[in-house]
Amino acid sequence: MTDYETLLVDHSDNVLTITLNRPDKLNALTHKMGAEIKGLLKKAGRDDSIRAVLMTGAGRGFCAGQDLSDMSVFEPGTSLRSHLQQGYNPMISAMRALEKPIITAINGVAVGAGLGLALAGDIRYAAENAVFRIGFIGIGLMPDSGVSFFLPRLIGPARAAAMTFTNDEVSATQAEQWGLINQVCPPDDLLPAARELAVRLAGGPTKAIGLSKRALNRAQLIDIDTALEYEAQLQDIAGRTGDFREGVLAFIEKRAPQYTGS
Q: CA end-to-end span of the chain, whole Å?
């Protein structure tokens, strides 16, 4: 396949393996990475030789969410709604719309939009040292990238609220007990186990699996695009708050944020 700036790509055994490849940034998302992921998923939908997708991260993290060093996203007057509509929303929608199974192999931290990326997979395996955290509330925002849609459906509204409001980390073991992920693996066993499953699913009835995925999507109370659009509207409001500006500034200055509720 074509070379990619932010991804490592392998296509073998009817499995497309996508590895987020910004390990020095814990695979933090950029507009370029989101566009490359979306483009690959579009190709996967057209290519009959791809019958399953495996997504993981290079290095010690799965994905740390939005790369906050890209301050153009947070310049005054920038609409976070537009940022989501043009970037993350199409990426998450593409994952859910792809009528082929997607396994996310979470090899480390999954935070913010990276958590949304992990949860958008159909089946989730995680390394024992993986950590899950909302992230958004830590900089004065609310969840986006499908997190508000997936989280309460997977772990229940009370746990989702606690995880969202406190921003506390959730271990892989706890995540498995809650139903956030399917299986915990020793770090060295994660990719072999996830790939074994991907190859198995790639050998299954691809059309039936795709139709099953479509049915599971529709069985939710609302569809993912409605949830994504609502997130974008609310995120636009959160992005205008003083606490958001303080959260980003505190992150950059490596200090504890001083929120005022404004």
A: 48
